[in-house]
Amino acid sequence: MDDRTVMEDLLLNIKGACDLYLHGTVESSTANVRGAFDKSLEDSLCSQNAIYQKMSAKGWYASEQAPKQNIDTVRQKFYA
User: Fold this and answer.
1) Does the pLDDT value for residue 65 go beyond 90?
2) What pLDDT was estimated at residue 63?
3) Residue 14 CB: number of other CB atoms within 10 A?
């Protein structure tokens, strides 16, 4: 397994953890439980960003800027 595959797998797993922590935070019924999920979500988001930054620096996760026309179309749809 090469480094790129390992990083892609890590990113996929950390995104899944973020999703679970987000739902845990939203559904929490007490401040203590909410705080624990919220802290875990924050930590996971930091890890996700670090993995993304490393992948992006190596050219393994290229992102494209959306055309201005597409952004304007979406903006008009939701803010009209």
Assistant:
1) no
2) 83
3) 20
- The token duo for 59 is 């050219």
Helix (H) or strand (E) holding 76: helix 68-79
**pLDDT tens by residue, 22-59:** 999 999 999 999 999 999 999 999 999 999 999 999 99
> Measured between alpha carbons, how far apart are the two ends of the chain, in Å?
49
Q: How far apart are CA 48 and CA 17, in angstroms?
A: 10
Going from the C-alpha of 23 to that of each of 44, 46, 61, the distances in angstroms are 13, 17, 26
User: CA 52, CA 26: separation in Å to the nearest integer?
Assistant: 25
Structural domain spans, the chain: 3-79
C-alpha closest to that of 14 among 47, 40, 62, 56? 47
Give 3-state DSSP helix, strand, coil % of the chain, rounded to 5. 80, 0, 20
